[in-house]
Amino acid sequence: MKKTRIALQSKGRLKERSVEFLRSKGLKFPENGEGLLTSCSNADIEILWLRDDDIPEYVRCGAADFGIVGENVLQEQKSGLRIIRKLGFSKCRLVIAVPKNSRILELADLEGERIATSYPSLLCDFLQSRNIHATMIPLSGSVEIAPEMSLSDAICDLVQSGNTLKIHNLRELKTIFESEAVLIGNSEKNLNFDTVARGRATRGK
Ligand code: PRT
Ligand code: ZN
Question: Which of 35, 36, 82, 94 could form a disulfide with 187 if both were Cys (CB 3.0 to 4.6 A apart)?
């Protein structure tokens, strides 16, 4: 029988609590060393270690049966995957922020301005819903530095403690999405996570 596969982030903010979650379900497995696939010693389950951005696609195409990912990544990719449960960790907010001394004081002031972000899809949906036309500057990281470098007039990025915004003299204008880690599953396979985690990899309910 084919083993059930669960995709986890290989390193980063989600990893530790994701591992903790699976271990709290009784699964025993070593953490990833060099290998991208590790086996549970007490269940027919493999852990697949990936970049978080790749987890939804692996689950969507069925290469992994389950995955743990930030809801922000899931919604940005519009993968339409089934959220099995919210996990209550890695909480953060996707926020539009501007330099403290900016003349942008409210959302309407963003009209015609440049917003740097790694979340163009979520930002675009939000701006459309408010009928605001702005220029998106897509960046893959270090977004908070963009206004200081005159690359943008505002940013849209994840915030947790707020320290990074503070360091870069940015102030929050609006939270557009609230996120936390979620357990996702491939809907076509319709596996029951708790049943699988108990080591009885039965299909269906
Ligand atoms: O390598 P890989 O692609 O797997 O990881 P990654 O670098 O893309 O992601 P990672 O590990 O940084 O974050 C994984 C997930 O953790 C995110 O997708 C979110 O769901 C969640 N998360 C929770 C956060 C934060 N908190 C967070 N603070 N992701 C990023 N940040 C960054 C943010 O981008 C900003 O630069 O931290 C900075 C702000 O933090 P504060 O505390 O200063 O506000
Ligand atoms: Zn990533």
Answer: 82
Q: How far is the CA of 50 from the centre of ligand 2 (A)?
A: 9
Q: What is the pLDDT of residues 147-187, one digit of tens each?
A: 999 999 999 999 999 999 999 999 999 999 999 999 999 98
pLDDT at 174: 98
Of all residues in the chain, the percent with pLDDT exceeding 90 is 86
Helix locations, the chain, DSSP H? 15-24, 55-60, 71-76, 120-129, 163-167, 193-197
Mean pLDDT of the chain: 94
Nearest atom in ligand 1 to 164's CA: 43
Ligand 2 centroid – CA 53 distance (Å): 5
**For residue 86, which phi and psi values (nearest 5 degrees)?**
-85, 140
CB of 146 closer than 6 angstroms to any ligand 1 atom: no
